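Quick review question:
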């Protein structure tokens, strides 16, 4: 799955650690099994899992196959009804060991459908869930706008938005996984209509879970979403791992994974190639986000590989009005990407971005490595408070960075009466792109309204970030979501 990166020795290393860790977990589960407390989970004795073994936060007692509900996998027959009746039927087992729906090999065309509690959607290798290409409301029911945005995010009108292809709200314990099955959003029709301003409401996301707890999304190929790919919002205890996410690099708003007003999130071992940010952490828009007041916090992101020529590997904002705090990021690789970890905010946003920790970035061909802006003037409406609603951006730590072929090392722009403070950058080596034809050499750093320190950074940083002997901090403790272990389940 990480074909692009197996040449990268650091990546191989972490992969090895990952496997060693998995064996450790299997060992721990075996011991627990001996004492008989995990009756529903069978542990495979070898590392080779058969088709119907998989790892998950919870195993299920009941299961069904999509074809039991008159589904036709020819890529032409619409199966929305089959998905809905299967999941409605399986929802009766929520309090009796939970249930699992197998999507077998085939092409399963469908409109939007809803998930249920204590439920696993298992997409087998060779199975493709294909999103309907009609923009009809029958396939894409209209949902009310998100309260923390106050508007359709892209129509900028207080109207509705299209339900995501796979949707869930107010759920507990929901898993979307498979052994590398595919969800294809067939987004091209939406991208065209969006570019030509032919849509009345905000485009659907591929997967959205709202007000939900205990979510796992893993081991799948997600391609060509109409809009963002994975959007957990107002949710908690979320694991997203082993996804390969791909959209053409020139299509609008195909962000990979966007935790939004969500807590306790673990995002590991994903490969993302997209026309927008690979990951964007958000928490609502201007006065609506401030009023809703739900931050995104306690988030760990590890071993991400990103290609995003027009956007960031990880963006914080620009919608951050409910606040973003305690984000830990380790072991990142970006190739041909505009910015690494980018903070975007504006006057009117309010909220905060604080306690951000980044350790270990290996970057190649970037417009800018360090990027912060306080003038991302993309507003929900004109009702924001330009005097009081100032973002508090503070405590932003980066260490152990190597970058090659970079146009701008650091472009750090705070807000004039509201500087971004507590920036720390240590042990960063940036090789600049040398454009022999340029008549004027660009300065590698451009900083205004920021303060902080740097240590052992090449090329020499701007004067607002003076040298001080430090290793920028990274927390030693573990987040609760890091202690959640996968079980090996068998159907
Ligand atoms: C999963 O799918 C991706 C993309 O199709 C492929 O590159 C990768 O090798 C597959 N991984 C496995 C384990 O089958
Ligand atoms: C899916 O959930 C939404 C939001 O609760 C609801 O409006 C819609 O009717 C549901 N769709 C189905 C098919 O149950
Ligand atoms: C979902 O949970 C939210 C927050 O607790 C609540 O406001 C909303 O009414 C719930 N919706 C449903 C359909 O239960
Ligand atoms: C910003 O947040 C920091 C840390 O929580 C706090 O010490 C500081 O007073 C805040 N600054 C403003 C202007 O609110
Ligand atoms: C500096 O960062 C590099 C990775 O870019 C890492 O290999 C090295 O160990 C770091 N050095 C120190 C002293 O932490
Ligand atoms: C370096 O970056 C420039 C764009 O900034 C790109 O055109 C060029 O192909 C890159 N060179 C390498 C060796 O990747
Ligand atoms: C720094 O950025 C500002 C725009 O924010 C630009 O006007 C200025 O020319 C840049 N300075 C340098 C030295 O590149």
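Suggested answer, residue by residue:
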């Amino acid at each position: 799955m990480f074909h692009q990166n197996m040449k990268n020795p650091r990546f191989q290393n972490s992969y090895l650690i990952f496997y060693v860790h998995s064996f450790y977990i299997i060992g721990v589960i075996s011991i627990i099994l001996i004492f008989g407390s995990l009756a529903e989970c069978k542990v495979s004795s070898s590392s080779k899992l058969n088709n119907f073994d998989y790892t998950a936060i919870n195993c299920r007692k009941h299961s069904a196959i999509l074809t039991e509900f008159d589904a036709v996998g020819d890529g032409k027959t619409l199966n929305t009804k089959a998905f809905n009746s299967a999941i409605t039927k399986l929802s009766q087992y929520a309090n009796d060991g939970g249930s699992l729906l197998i999507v077998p090999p085939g092409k399963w065309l469908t409109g939007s459908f809803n998930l249920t509690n204590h439920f696993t959607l298992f997409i087998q290798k060779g199975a493709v869930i294909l999103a309907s290409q009609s923009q009809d409301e029958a396939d894409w029911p209209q949902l009310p706008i998100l309260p923390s945005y106050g508007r359709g995010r892209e129509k900028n009108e207080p109207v509705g938005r299209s339900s995501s292809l796979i949707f869930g709200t107010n759920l507990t314990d929901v898993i979307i996984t498979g052994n590398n099955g595919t969800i294809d959003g067939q987004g091209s029709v939406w991208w065209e209509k969006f570019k030509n301003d032919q849509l009345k409401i905000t485009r659907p996301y591929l997967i959205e879970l709202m007000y939900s707890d205990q979510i796992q999304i893993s081991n799948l190929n997600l391609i060509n979403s109409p809009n963002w790919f994975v959007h957990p919002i107002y949710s908690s205890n979320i694991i997203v791992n082993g996804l390969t996410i791909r959209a053409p690099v020139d299509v609008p708003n195909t962000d990979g994974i966007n935790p939004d007003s969500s807590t306790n999130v673990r995002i590991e071992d994903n490969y993302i190639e997209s026309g927008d940010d690979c990951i964007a952490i958000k928490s609502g828009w201007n006065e609506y986000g401030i009023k809703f007041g739900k931050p995104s916090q306690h988030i760990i992101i590890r071993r991400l590989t990103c290609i995003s020529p027009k956007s960031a590997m990880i963006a914080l904002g620009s919608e951050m009005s409910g606040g973003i705090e305690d984000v830990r990021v380790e072991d990142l690789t970006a190739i041909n990407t505009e910015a690494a970890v980018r903070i975007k905010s504006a006057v009117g946003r309010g909220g905060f971005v604080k306690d951000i920790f980044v350790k270990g970035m290996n970057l190649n061909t970037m417009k800018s490595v360090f990027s912060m802006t306080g003038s991302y003037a993309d507003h929900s409406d004109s009702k924001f408070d330009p005097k009081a609603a100032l973002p508090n951006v503070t405590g932003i730590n980066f260490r152990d960075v190597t970058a090659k072929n970079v146009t701008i090392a650091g472009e750090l722009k705070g807000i004039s009466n509201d500087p971004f403070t507590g920036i720390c950058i240590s042990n960063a080596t940036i090789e600049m792109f040398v454009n022999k034809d340029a008549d004027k050499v660009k300065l590698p750093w451009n900083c205004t309204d920021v303060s902080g320190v740097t240590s052992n950074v090449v090329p020499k940083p701007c004067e607002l970030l003076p040298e001080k002997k430090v290793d920028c901090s990274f927390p030693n403790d573990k987040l609760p979501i890091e202690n959640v272990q996968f079980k090996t389940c068998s159907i």
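Why it works: The chain is about 10% helix and 45% strand. The first helix runs from residue 9 to 34.
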